[in-house]
Protein backbone atom coordinates (compact mmCIF):
# COMPACT_ATOMS: atom_id res chain seq x y z
CA UNK A 1 0.00 0.00 0.00
CA UNK A 2 1.41 3.37 -0.97
CA UNK A 3 1.88 5.99 1.67
CA UNK A 4 1.17 8.68 -0.92
CA UNK A 5 -2.55 7.96 -0.84
CA UNK A 6 -4.82 10.61 0.65
CA UNK A 7 -5.81 9.89 4.24
CA UNK A 8 -8.99 8.17 3.31
CA UNK A 9 -9.83 4.56 4.02
CA UNK A 10 -12.20 4.32 1.12
CA UNK A 11 -11.13 4.44 -2.56
CA UNK A 12 -13.04 5.65 -5.60
CA UNK A 13 -14.94 2.38 -5.90
CA UNK A 14 -16.20 2.69 -2.32
CA UNK A 15 -14.19 -0.34 -1.20
CA UNK A 16 -11.89 -0.38 1.81
CA UNK A 17 -8.19 -0.07 0.97
CA UNK A 18 -7.23 -1.86 4.17
CA UNK A 19 -7.04 -5.55 4.37
CA UNK A 20 -9.15 -6.74 7.33
CA UNK A 21 -6.46 -9.19 8.40
CA UNK A 22 -3.86 -6.42 8.38
CA UNK A 23 -6.04 -4.19 10.54
CA UNK A 24 -6.60 -7.05 12.95
CA UNK A 25 -2.85 -7.74 13.14
CA UNK A 26 -2.20 -4.06 13.87
CA UNK A 27 -4.90 -4.00 16.52
CA UNK A 28 -3.34 -7.02 18.23
CA UNK A 29 0.09 -5.44 18.07
CA UNK A 30 -1.21 -2.25 19.71
CA UNK A 31 -2.84 -4.28 22.47
CA UNK A 32 0.38 -6.19 23.04
CA UNK A 33 2.38 -2.96 23.26
CA UNK A 34 -0.15 -1.44 25.64
CA UNK A 35 0.09 -4.48 27.88
CA UNK A 36 3.88 -4.33 28.01
CA UNK A 37 3.78 -0.58 28.70
CA UNK A 38 1.42 -1.20 31.61
CA UNK A 39 3.87 -3.76 32.97
CA UNK A 40 6.74 -1.28 32.74
CA UNK A 41 4.67 1.35 34.52
CA UNK A 42 4.01 -1.08 37.35
CA UNK A 43 7.72 -1.75 37.77
CA UNK A 44 8.50 1.95 37.81
CA UNK A 45 6.39 2.60 40.86
CA UNK A 46 9.18 1.65 43.25
CA UNK A 47 12.78 2.69 43.02
CA UNK A 48 15.27 -0.07 43.56
CA UNK A 49 18.70 0.07 45.22
CA UNK A 50 21.31 -2.67 45.23
CA UNK A 51 24.45 -2.33 47.34
CA UNK A 52 27.35 -4.76 47.25
CA UNK A 53 29.10 -4.66 50.64
CA UNK A 54 32.64 -6.11 50.47
CA UNK A 55 34.29 -4.52 53.52
CA UNK A 56 34.02 -5.69 57.12
CA UNK A 57 35.88 -3.03 59.07
CA UNK A 58 34.02 -1.03 61.68
CA UNK A 59 33.94 2.16 59.62
CA UNK A 60 33.02 0.46 56.34
CA UNK A 61 30.06 -1.38 57.88
CA UNK A 62 28.16 1.88 58.36
CA UNK A 63 27.66 3.34 54.86
CA UNK A 64 25.78 0.38 53.33
CA UNK A 65 23.52 0.01 56.38
CA UNK A 66 22.75 3.73 56.66
CA UNK A 67 21.95 4.03 52.95
CA UNK A 68 19.92 0.81 52.94
CA UNK A 69 17.74 1.75 55.92
CA UNK A 70 17.23 5.28 54.59
CA UNK A 71 16.25 3.97 51.14
CA UNK A 72 13.77 1.65 52.84
CA UNK A 73 12.30 4.71 54.58
CA UNK A 74 11.81 6.20 51.09
CA UNK A 75 9.80 3.10 50.23
CA UNK A 76 12.49 1.73 47.92
CA UNK A 77 13.04 -1.93 47.24
CA UNK A 78 16.51 -2.54 48.76
CA UNK A 79 18.98 -5.41 48.47
CA UNK A 80 22.41 -5.48 50.14
CA UNK A 81 24.61 -8.29 48.90
CA UNK A 82 27.37 -9.02 51.44
CA UNK A 83 30.46 -10.74 50.18
CA UNK A 84 34.01 -11.35 51.42
CA UNK A 85 34.73 -9.24 54.54
CA UNK A 86 31.33 -7.62 54.16
CA UNK A 87 29.89 -10.90 55.40
CA UNK A 88 31.15 -10.13 58.93
CA UNK A 89 28.57 -7.31 59.16
CA UNK A 90 25.79 -9.92 59.08
CA UNK A 91 27.61 -12.37 61.37
CA UNK A 92 25.90 -11.94 64.72
CA UNK A 93 29.01 -12.44 66.85
CA UNK A 94 31.57 -10.79 64.56
CA UNK A 95 29.36 -7.76 63.89
CA UNK A 96 29.69 -6.79 67.55
CA UNK A 97 33.46 -6.87 67.33
CA UNK A 98 34.29 -5.16 64.03
CA UNK A 99 37.65 -3.37 64.07
CA UNK A 100 38.86 -0.11 62.68
CA UNK A 101 42.26 -0.36 61.04
CA UNK A 102 44.80 2.15 62.35
CA UNK A 103 47.32 1.30 59.61
CA UNK A 104 46.93 2.92 56.20
CA UNK A 105 44.16 5.13 57.54
CA UNK A 106 45.04 8.71 56.60
CA UNK A 107 42.54 10.02 59.15
CA UNK A 108 44.45 8.53 62.07
CA UNK A 109 46.53 11.07 63.94
CA UNK A 110 49.62 8.83 63.99
CA UNK A 111 52.27 7.55 61.55
CA UNK A 112 51.85 4.05 60.09
CA UNK A 113 54.95 2.81 61.94
CA UNK A 114 53.20 3.57 65.22
CA UNK A 115 49.77 2.44 64.02
CA UNK A 116 51.20 -0.99 63.24
CA UNK A 117 52.09 -1.62 66.90
CA UNK A 118 50.02 -4.25 68.76
CA UNK A 119 46.83 -2.89 70.29
CA UNK A 120 46.58 0.12 68.01
CA UNK A 121 43.60 -1.21 66.03
CA UNK A 122 41.76 -1.86 69.28
CA UNK A 123 42.57 1.63 70.49
CA UNK A 124 41.43 3.22 67.22
CA UNK A 125 38.21 1.20 67.39
CA UNK A 126 37.57 2.30 70.99
CA UNK A 127 38.09 5.93 70.03
CA UNK A 128 35.64 5.62 67.14
CA UNK A 129 33.11 3.73 69.29
CA UNK A 130 33.24 6.51 71.87
CA UNK A 131 32.62 9.14 69.20
CA UNK A 132 29.71 7.14 67.83
CA UNK A 133 28.12 6.81 71.25
CA UNK A 134 28.57 10.51 71.99
CA UNK A 135 27.11 11.50 68.64
CA UNK A 136 23.99 9.39 69.07
CA UNK A 137 24.88 7.34 65.99
CA UNK A 138 23.19 3.95 65.96
CA UNK A 139 25.16 0.76 66.54
CA UNK A 140 25.77 -1.72 63.72
CA UNK A 141 23.41 -4.16 65.45
CA UNK A 142 20.66 -1.54 65.67
CA UNK A 143 21.03 -0.66 61.99
CA UNK A 144 20.88 -4.31 60.96
CA UNK A 145 17.74 -4.90 63.00
CA UNK A 146 16.18 -1.70 61.68
CA UNK A 147 17.04 -2.66 58.09
CA UNK A 148 15.50 -6.10 58.45
CA UNK A 149 12.45 -4.63 60.17
CA UNK A 150 11.89 -2.17 57.32
CA UNK A 151 12.10 -4.81 54.61
CA UNK A 152 15.71 -4.52 53.43
CA UNK A 153 16.88 -7.81 51.92
CA UNK A 154 20.28 -8.46 53.56
CA UNK A 155 21.95 -11.20 51.58
CA UNK A 156 24.98 -13.30 52.54
CA UNK A 157 27.03 -14.63 49.62
CA UNK A 158 26.97 -18.43 49.80
CA UNK A 159 30.42 -18.92 48.32
CA UNK A 160 31.97 -16.62 50.95
CA UNK A 161 30.04 -18.34 53.77
CA UNK A 162 31.75 -21.57 52.76
CA UNK A 163 35.10 -19.92 52.13
CA UNK A 164 35.11 -18.39 55.63
CA UNK A 165 33.74 -21.64 57.08
CA UNK A 166 30.77 -19.82 58.61
CA UNK A 167 27.53 -21.52 59.45
CA UNK A 168 24.19 -20.20 58.20
CA UNK A 169 23.03 -20.06 61.83
CA UNK A 170 25.82 -17.57 62.62
CA UNK A 171 23.90 -14.80 60.88
CA UNK A 172 21.12 -12.54 62.14
CA UNK A 173 17.61 -13.98 61.78
CA UNK A 174 16.11 -12.75 58.55
CA UNK A 175 19.36 -12.68 56.57
CA UNK A 176 19.03 -14.32 53.14
CA UNK A 177 21.54 -17.10 52.45
CA UNK A 178 22.01 -19.39 49.46
CA UNK A 179 22.60 -16.58 46.98
CA UNK A 180 25.50 -15.90 44.64
CA UNK A 181 26.91 -13.49 42.09
CA UNK A 182 24.18 -14.25 39.56
CA UNK A 183 21.49 -13.17 42.03
CA UNK A 184 23.45 -10.01 42.82
CA UNK A 185 23.82 -9.20 39.10
CA UNK A 186 20.14 -9.76 38.51
CA UNK A 187 19.27 -7.28 41.28
CA UNK A 188 21.83 -4.79 39.97
CA UNK A 189 20.35 -5.01 36.46
CA UNK A 190 16.88 -4.27 37.83
CA UNK A 191 18.05 -1.42 40.07
CA UNK A 192 17.91 2.33 39.61
CA UNK A 193 20.95 2.74 41.88
CA UNK A 194 23.85 0.31 42.29
CA UNK A 195 26.70 0.79 44.73
CA UNK A 196 29.86 -1.11 45.58
CA UNK A 197 31.10 -0.40 49.11
CA UNK B 1 6.73 26.17 71.77
CA UNK B 2 3.18 26.43 70.60
CA UNK B 3 2.35 25.04 67.22
CA UNK B 4 -0.07 26.28 64.61
CA UNK B 5 -0.55 22.71 63.45
CA UNK B 6 -2.99 20.33 64.95
CA UNK B 7 -0.46 17.58 65.59
CA UNK B 8 -1.69 14.05 66.08
CA UNK B 9 1.55 12.66 67.42
CA UNK B 10 5.02 13.82 68.46
CA UNK B 11 8.14 11.85 67.65
CA UNK B 12 11.15 12.62 69.83
CA UNK B 13 14.43 11.82 68.08
CA UNK B 14 16.54 14.20 70.11
CA UNK B 15 20.14 13.00 70.44
CA UNK B 16 19.82 10.62 67.51
CA UNK B 17 21.70 11.11 64.28
CA UNK B 18 21.39 10.05 60.64
CA UNK B 19 19.64 7.88 59.54
CA UNK B 20 17.48 7.52 62.68
CA UNK B 21 15.34 10.70 62.37
CA UNK B 22 14.28 9.67 58.85
CA UNK B 23 13.77 5.99 59.53
CA UNK B 24 11.75 6.67 62.70
CA UNK B 25 9.71 9.37 60.96
CA UNK B 26 8.79 6.90 58.24
CA UNK B 27 7.80 4.28 60.83
CA UNK B 28 5.72 6.80 62.79
CA UNK B 29 3.97 8.02 59.62
CA UNK B 30 3.11 4.42 58.71
CA UNK B 31 1.20 4.13 61.99
CA UNK B 32 -0.90 7.26 61.36
CA UNK B 33 -4.08 7.84 59.36
CA UNK B 34 -4.49 10.04 56.29
CA UNK B 35 -4.86 13.68 57.38
CA UNK B 36 -2.83 13.22 60.57
CA UNK B 37 0.12 15.51 61.29
CA UNK B 38 3.33 14.21 62.84
CA UNK B 39 5.61 16.53 64.79
CA UNK B 40 9.24 15.40 64.72
CA UNK B 41 11.62 16.94 67.25
CA UNK B 42 15.30 16.46 66.43
CA UNK B 43 18.72 17.80 67.42
CA UNK B 44 20.41 16.55 64.24
CA UNK B 45 21.06 19.64 62.07
CA UNK B 46 21.12 17.37 59.00
CA UNK B 47 17.49 16.55 59.64
CA UNK B 48 16.37 19.81 57.94
CA UNK B 49 17.74 18.72 54.57
CA UNK B 50 17.07 15.02 55.12
CA UNK B 51 13.40 15.38 56.05
CA UNK B 52 12.91 17.68 53.04
CA UNK B 53 14.52 15.12 50.74
CA UNK B 54 12.57 12.28 52.25
CA UNK B 55 9.24 14.11 52.00
CA UNK B 56 9.97 15.09 48.37
CA UNK B 57 10.83 11.55 47.42
CA UNK B 58 8.00 9.84 49.28
CA UNK B 59 4.43 9.72 48.07
CA UNK B 60 1.62 10.22 50.54
CA UNK B 61 3.42 12.72 52.76
CA UNK B 62 3.65 16.48 52.78
CA UNK B 63 6.16 18.57 54.69
CA UNK B 64 4.15 21.42 56.21
CA UNK B 65 6.88 23.28 58.05
CA UNK B 66 10.31 23.14 59.64
CA UNK B 67 11.14 25.27 62.65
CA UNK B 68 14.69 25.90 63.82
CA UNK B 69 15.00 27.08 67.40
CA UNK B 70 18.54 27.16 68.86
CA UNK B 71 19.59 23.50 68.76
CA UNK B 72 16.12 22.07 68.17
CA UNK B 73 14.77 21.24 64.74
CA UNK B 74 11.04 20.64 64.63
CA UNK B 75 9.37 19.24 61.52
CA UNK B 76 5.68 18.96 60.72
CA UNK B 77 4.81 16.16 58.34
CA UNK B 78 1.29 15.48 57.16
CA UNK B 79 0.16 12.08 55.97
CA UNK B 80 -1.91 12.82 52.87
CA UNK B 81 -3.01 9.36 51.79
Automatic annotation (TrEMBL), chain A:
InterPro entries: DsrE2-like, DsrEFH-like. The lineage of its organism: Archaea, Methanobacteriati, Methanobacteriota, Stenosarchaea group, Halobacteria. It comes from Natronorubrum texcoconense. Residues 1-20 are annotated as: Disordered. Pfam families: DrsE_2. PANTHER family: CONSERVED WITHIN P. AEROPHILUM, PEROXIREDOXIN FAMILY PROTEIN. This is Peroxiredoxin family protein.
TrEMBL record, chain B:
Coiled coil: none annotated. The keyword Transferase applies. It comes from the Archaea. Keywords: Transferase. InterPro entries: TusA-like, TusA-like_sf. PROSITE patterns: UPF0033. Pfam families: TusA (PF01206). The keyword Transferase applies. Residues 11-35 form the UPF0033 domain. GO terms for molecular function: transferase activity. Belongs to the sulfur carrier protein TusA family. This is TusA-related sulfurtransferase. It comes from Natronorubrum texcoconense.
Amino acid sequence: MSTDNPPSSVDADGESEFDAAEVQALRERVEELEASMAELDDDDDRQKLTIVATQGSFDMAYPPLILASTAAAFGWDVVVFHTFWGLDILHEEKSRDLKLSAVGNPNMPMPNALAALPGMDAMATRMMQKRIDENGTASIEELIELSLETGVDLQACQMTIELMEYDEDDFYDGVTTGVGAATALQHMAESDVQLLV
Amino acid sequence: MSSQYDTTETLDVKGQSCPMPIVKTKQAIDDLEAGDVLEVVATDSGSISDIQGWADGTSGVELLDQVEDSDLYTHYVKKTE
